[in-house]
Amino acid sequence: MPLMENSSWALLALLHVAAALVFLSKIILRRHPKRNFPPGPKPWPVIGNLNLVGSIPHQSLHFLSQKYGDIMQLKFGKFAVVVASSPEMAKQFLRVHDTVFASRAALAAGKYTSYNYSDMTWAPYGPFWRQARKIYLSEVFNAKKLESLEHIRIEERRNFLARLYSLSGKPVILRFYFIALYYK
């Protein structure tokens, strides 16, 4: 008899746990309603759809668009990416809904390197970003300022070409030199 009572208690406890899980899942699903996302392949748990993007990404995306349509959703790791693969869809993104897609993703790099997204580079699109852009265009990237710094660009180009000339006859990986030129 004690064995039967123990198994009935175990069964009752299991039923309570199952009911609690069903109840919690209903609450969670009600809080996060199903959104109307574009179609796309089912993602893997950690990598998402990165396995579907081969060594030639534009061809992989073309083949996927033939299967899923002009607009599709892919997951790159934990990030959802919407791919528009026709001129009509690109027009929708870039002209009709441009302000919706104007902001960058809120990454930790922007938060900690620019004092909580206060730099124009990381700031979300809005009044602050528009004001900062006006200031950059009028004070930093105007024709007079660019002309006043032209001598520095000329000197850097000459140094770059002199470095390349000194390496003539040897194999050169230009990527490293372009990166160095960019950061000077």
User: Which structural class matches the secondary elements?
Assistant: mainly alpha
Helix percentage range: 55-70%
The major sheet is characterized as: 2 strands, antiparallel
Mean pLDDT: 85
The number of helical elements comes to 8
* Portion in strands: 5-15%
Q: Count structural domains.
A: 3
**Helix and strand element order:** HHEEHHHHHH
Cα separation of the termini: 84 Å
The radius of gyration over CA amounts to 28 Å
Write the layout of secondary structure elements.
Layout: H1 2-31, H2 57-68, E1 71-76, E2 79-84, H3 87-96, H4 108-113, H5 127-140, H6 143-148, H7 150-166, H8 174-183
Antiparallel strand pairs: 1-2
Task: List the main descriptive attributes of the protein structure presented here.
184 residues, 8 helices, 2 strands, Cyt_P450_sf, 3 domains, mainly alpha, monooxygenase activity
Structural commentary:
- It is a single chain.
- The chain is mainly alpha-helical.
- The protein has three domains: 1-34; 50-144, no CATH class; 149-183.
- The chain is built from eight helices and two strands; from the N terminus they run H-H-E-E-H-H-H-H-H-H.
- It has helices at 2-31, 57-68, 87-96, 108-113, 127-140, 143-148, 150-166, 174-183, and strands at residues 71-76, 79-84.
- It has a two-stranded antiparallel sheet.
- Strand 1 (71-76) and strand 2 form a beta hairpin.
- The longest helix is centred in the N-terminal third of the chain and has 30 residues, at 2-31.
Quick overview:
With 184 residues, the protein is mainly α. It is built from 8 helices and 2 strands.
